[in-house]
Amino acid sequence: MKTIGLIGGMSWESTVTYYQIINETIKKELGGLHSAKILLYSVDFAEIEKCQADGDWNKSGEILGNAAKNLEKAGADYIVICTNTMHKVVPQIQKKISIPIIHIAEATAEKLKENKIRKVALLGTKYTMTQDFYKEKLIEAGIEVLIPCKNDIEIVNDVIYNELCLGVISEDSKKEYLRIIDELSMKGAEGVILGCTEIGLLIKQNDTILPVFDTTQIHAYEAAIHAISKKLPSM
Hints:
By secondary structure, the chain is α/β, with parallel strands linked by helices.
């Protein structure tokens, strides 16, 4: 079994979900008392969030790059970054290490193609929804991406940082998210990506008729499967 290097803490609530899904997947696949070999480097999210707010992506890339380097030194075979937004700095992180990174958007794109989704709604932080680093992976896979209007982008983003990352689950916020999903569905979305690892704490498949693609579940499952496959993820 390969050793998974997790970079977590962004936020820690969703990192718990990664740990659970990875171990549940290993147990299901291998049976018995098997569990995953995991190294976890958990960062201080307040430090990362300040970099995001200040637009200092280089500094956040340095922080996560050093975390990845330490995980590689400790014996990790590949890296899994337990957040969508910070995949913006994957190229910077990859330069610091010689082991691969499983990209969350690439894993999600593969899942969408398996389900024949050609047009998808994307919810996440304002950085994930409006910048190209994430959407380009989906577009390269032939998938059209729909995002909310400007006002709704702010609503989605505020709920993530001011509620979900603090462990607050609000029924009012769920209603707003479902309204936004419905509006994107009317614009032709055939599915919705929960493109922030915390959104799955709020929105579940039984909340909407639109197929839900929870990136935390998709990414964590891929992390687990690679641990027991013969090949490493591609660089």
